[in-house]
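Much of our argument rests on the idea that a fold can be written as discrete symbols. In the encoding step, the backbone of a single protein was reduced to a row of integers, each denoting a local shape. We regard such an encoding as a compact summary of how the chain folds. The record that follows shows the chain in one-letter code together with its fold in token form:
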Amino acid sequence: MKKTVIAMSILFCSMGTASLKAQDSDTDTDARGNFAFGIKAGLNYSNVWDEQGQDFRADAKAGFAGGVFFGIPIGKFLGVQPEILVSQKGFKASGTLFGSAYSFTKTTTFLDIPLQFQVKPAQFLTIVAGPQYSYLLHEKNVYVYGSNSIAQEQEFENENIRKNVLGFVAGFDIIISHVVVSGRAGWDFQANNGDGTSFTPRYKNQWLQATVGFKI
């Protein structure tokens, strides 16, 4: 009996020591309270919502997304995460314009600057959400008509485009050592036409984004 008690005492002491070492190790590797900087790249899967005009029907398309991100801690469990991204959005569409059928693909390249607030419930998980400012850098339209019309092309090329757009993003980061796997969903609050007078289809961007990054 004495030998059994001694053996159990040694076992519990060993388990307690191992637990303390594990806690110390977790504390050493927990970087939630540290400033962070990193790069990321991946894909957008974008479409539009609140679309109006010319019997407008849109389908989603893929595009590039990538840039840099910063992690600014507010204690251990909260923080702010601004990002600067080059982000391709757009859609594929078909409809009618001036009574003629058309289809086209629109690719818009934005400089996206989301300002996300962080909640960090675990070392490996960060939940983010916040407003986003987007600036239109470039736009490309590819047209396909049954019979091509310069007037119809000009109608789209001359549309009154809004270059400064406000929106909202939300998502998560999964952190595995220095690797960050991210998922986002985003929506524009403002439509594409600058003052509402454009005759071409009106819409707002929406997108899903998946990226892989490296955190320093």
Notes: Residues 1-8, 10-27 have pLDDT under 50 and may be disordered. Strands lie at 36-52, 57-59, 61-74, 78-97, 100-122, 125-145, 164-176, 179-188, 202-215.
